[in-house]
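Researcher: We're teaching a course module on how sequence relates to structure. For the next exercise, students receive a sequence and then see the predicted structure as tokens, so they can try to spot secondary structure elements on their own. Here is the exercise chain.
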Amino acid sequence: MKRIKLEIAYDGTNYCGWQLQPGLPTIEAVINKALSELLGEEITVIGASRTDSGVHAKGNVAVFDTNTRIPAEKICLALNQRLPEDIKVQSSEEVALDFHPRKVNCRKTYEYRILNRKIALPMERLYSYFVYYPLDIHAMQKAAKYLVGTHDFKSFCSVKTQVKDTVRTIYDLTIRKEEDIIKITVTGNGFLYNMVRIIAGTLIEVGRGTLPPERIPEIVQGCDRSLAGPTAPPEGLTLINIEYLDNNFLRND
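Model: And here is the predicted structure for the students to work with:
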């Protein structure tokens, strides 16, 4: 038995998120089916980030156990022949049998894209949130600085969040504009349910002038979801990568 780690990219438009849901198309279900057919075993992957419906990824991570004799690094190429065009494995490698992608220290980076112009661009509709009114990027950058560090982010997670500990660390939160696209890039040690989308929605309120940047500390300290801005739509969000801080899980033999 060996454990294989996959790095996976996907367009989440046509899927109801990562996690298995009976009768619904999900990323996890497609990968499980393709792996099971390829390897001739019943395979169930464990994902690092269970992205929501419509959310994309460039570097999500999943692991699975198998008895296959196919070399680990070649599994991604064989698997991609069985996967649809909107899901592709970027790499595959063997890891230690006790490696769990959600139970080790890591840095996750997400990017939220906003199309900020008067008229929408059809080719951007699936990969950005269209905002027609002007946004003050400098005010958004000022507000973002208050969110960097270790805080209780209860105000920035869905009321459906089931975890008891809502303290997370944001290492970096940058906002930059490239032509008509505003990119909010956030790196942290983990994120609560809808946390990045609520941060994006709150920063958009700052950008439009309805929320002063100086209110952010008050929102954080209030630990009340109703204090923060709306949850931005899923199509603007992409999981960029997951960086594991301890590489001891890699197999060197």
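Model: If you want an answer key for the exercise: The chain has two domains: 2-103, 107-241. Residues 95 and 242 are 16 Å apart (CA to CA).
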